[in-house]
Amino acid sequence: MRLRDAGLFVRARLSRTLTGALNARSAIALPVPLPLEAVVARPDPSPLDLARLLEGRSNVEREALLGRYLAARGVRFETERFATFEGAGVNYVAEVGGGPRTLVLIAHHDAVPGSPGANDNAAAVGILLRLLARMAAAPPPRLTLRFLFTAAEELGYLGARAYVRSPAARQVAAALSLELCGIGDQLALWDAPRETELSRSFAHAVVGLGYRRDETFHVVGRVPVFGSDHRAFLEVGIPAHGLTVLPGAEAEALRRFIFKPWRSLFQRRPRPFDTYHTARDRSETLEPAAFDRVGAALEALIREF
Ligand SMILES: [Zn+2]
Q1: Cα of 117 to ligand 1 centre, how many Å?
Q2: Which CATH architecture is the domain 3-304 placed in?
Q3: What separation in Å is there between the alpha carbon of 274 and the centre of ligand 1?
Q4: Less crowded by CB within 10 Å, the N or C end of the chain?
Q5: 162, 167, 191: which is closest to 179 by C-alpha?
Q6: Ligand 1 centre and the CA of 111: distance in Å?
Q7: What confidence tier does 274 reach under pLDDT thresholds 50, 70, 90?
Q8: DSSP for 230-298?
């Protein structure tokens, strides 16, 4: 094992143990998720419905239900199981479109123990499931879109790190990981210290939707402390960024919090970090407008890339 992997493993275990212990002390009951049958019965379930399918369930259930949902919808997908000494899980992969270049869109389906995991990250799973249905109906002609639903992101991007070791990952042009996409009115592309084809296409796409750079959308450099699945792609040399939605009213507080998170020990955490990894990360806090925002931005990016 490389030193870097060991560091990720120890950090993930520590944070998991700490948040698990804190959440176990919480008096808030877990939310009641939507049953699979109720969601499948809807012809065009919203990202919120899909998020409610997963929230409040154990990681084992989340993983199993996502596979059952894809199967029930008739989606063609691969089930990729991985197991290392760090942990095990299942990644799901579905592809649409056709073209020499492949853009990978990622959402992890696991959550930290004791958190319902609505904004982190059932919201992103819901957004990608909806997008997958829309893109399957009207595939992009010159681009292959690969939807990757990973396990064990909260264990140091374990699922994504397993995925990038597969031969299929070698043909990837770029990857984008969705994190915390259910609350807010501004877009942030992060871990983007230098311009890439992906960041350039993203900026062009959202400007076309009426966003203004540094006002309503932000391109942020390397983020300390926080991370996501795209970092597994970066490690093997594939251009990759994170995508998050943020409340504009909190922009300044968020900048301080994200770049100096230890301050949150003494100060109020700005939204959406007030619920992040806590028992309060529930679907009632999610905003359907945020889902629409991300969905529209992704569709514009797909046309642009
Ligand atoms: Zn997450």
Answers
A1: 8
A2: 3-Layer(aba) Sandwich (3.40)
A3: 14
A4: N
A5: 191
A6: 7
A7: confident
A8: HHHHHHTT--EEEEEEE-GGGHHHHHHHHHSGGGGGTSPPPTTTTTTTSTT--GGG--HHHHHHHHHHH
Distance 210 CA to ligand 1 centre (A): 28
The position carrying tokens 């945020």 is 290
Going from the Cα of 142 to the center of ligand 1, the distance in angstroms, rounded, reads: 30
193 pLDDT more than 80? yes
Report the C-alpha gap between 282 and 118 in whole angstroms. 5
Residue 98 Cα to ligand 1 midpoint, Å, equals 29
Strands 172-178 and 240-246: parallel
Residue 19 has pLDDT above 90, yes or no: no
Contact 179, 225 (CB under 8 A): no
Interval between CA 154 and ligand 1 midpoint (Å): 7
- What ranges make up the beta strands (E) of 60-152? 78-84, 87-97, 101-108, 143-150
Under the banding of pLDDT at 50, 70 and 90, the label for residue 260 is confident
- The CA 235 to ligand 1 mean position distance, Å, reads 18
Taking the domains of the chain in order of start, what are their residue ranges? 3-304
